[in-house]
Amino acid sequence: MQVVAVRTKAHWKDFLDFPRYLYANDPAWVGPLDMELRALFDPRKNPHFSDGEAQLWIAYDHQHRVIGRIAAFVYYPKARRYAVPTGGIGFWETIEDYTVAEALLDTAQEWLQARGLEAADACVNFGENDRFWGVLIEGFDTPPAYGMPYNKPYYADFLDRYGFEVYFRQESRELDLRQIPERIIRIAQRAAQKEGVTFAYPEKHRLKKYAHDFMVIYNDAWQHHEHFVALTPDRVEKLVANLAPILVEEMIYFAYVDGEPAGVILALPDLNQIFRPWRGKPTLWQLLQFLWRKRDKYAWYRRRGILTRARVMLMGVRPRYQRRGLESALAYLPVPPVLEMGITHAELSWVGDFNPAMLAVLEATQARRSKVHCTFRHYFSPEARSRALASERRVIERPA
């Protein structure tokens, strides 16, 4: 076996093609688009390269067949916020052979250690945690929503065997939008009638304004989460610019109190319902068809019952505006227009076990638990682990 750094076009092809071989007989797998992965590791397109770096590898057997792949990366502003500097490992795929998994994880760890890191999270994204974040441990029977990771059931066991521990659990739920509980509807309607409370959908010709409002809400609502890294105007504008081609205004809803940004819910069409047959590698004709058919908010797909689902990626209310019913208002008020479009279901993904307030909101919706992912952490030495346990606010538990 040989583990090789991705340097050439041939390497890139092997890196991207390997999952199509690995999941060839798995009906639930939906391949991330090759172009999205390439963009993620392109310093011209991923702002995390401004203060970070990444490397990819492929594992070959003695006959030069691909048997695994992995990526390691570090975004230094986030890594330095931990008591034990922590990097990331992701896009890890391997045949069911622990020796291959171990060799790939060894390679990634050595690369991170050479850059001063003392721990690694897996499997995570070199970017925001709304995509490609976590290891699936429950829910292998249905396809993932757009941006959500999918993997072989043995991955968690391999990580545990290597020395990774569960850092936090991530829960996703499936909500039938036609069955919103009456209690949420009543609270939402009362909240909407309160003086000074207004709501708005983003207008595409004013996206910069709504990007700023999103940043204000995000930086306030999430600031107390562990190792929070604030959004900057540049980062949020690039995030919105990347989402603009696929967003539907009716799936994004802002709450304002006396004109101040107070809360937001952000959902996207579950494009995996469209992309699934492509296996991550669309032809030019498929891309041209998609660009044509996505006009008028994906009307072609909606009319044919192909696109029936959304993925709620984020919902939050600034602390000073909580306990006013805005959470219920954001959860319900956008639903009737979305239902009129033929979108009947939504995946609420994901909520970490470190966020009990949002877990309570999930519970209130009575949505069905559909998938569970875990983010794993591995400390490279006993001393690093002891130092982390002495300083971290959360308890790291070993998987059952």
Q: Using DSSP, what is the number of strands? A: 13
Shape: globular
Largest sheet at a glance? 13 strands, mixed
What sequence of helices (H) and strands (E) makes up the elements? EHHEEHEHEEHEHEHHEEHHHEHHEHEH
| Share in β-strands | 25-35%
Q: Mean pLDDT, as a whole number?
A: 93
Radius of gyration over C-alpha positions, nearest whole angstrom: 21 Å
Alpha-beta content class: alpha+beta
Uncertain residue segments: 393-400
Straight-line N-to-C gap? 32 Å
Summed up, the helix count is 15
How would you classify the quaternary structure?
single chain
| Overall helicity | 25-40%
What does this structure look like?
The protein is 36% helix and 25% strand. With 400 residues, it is of the alpha+beta class. Strands 1, 2, 3, 4, 5, 6, 7, 8, 9, 10, 11, 12 and 13 form a 13-stranded mixed β-sheet that branches. The longest helix is centred in the first third of the chain and has 16 residues, at 98-113. The protein is globular, with a radius of gyration of 21 Å. The two termini are 32 Å apart. Residues 393-400 have low confidence and may be disordered.
List keywords for this structure.
400 residues, alpha+beta, 13-stranded mixed sheet, 13 strands, 36% helix, disordered C terminus
Brief sketch in words of this structure:
The chain is an alpha+beta fold and 400 residues long.
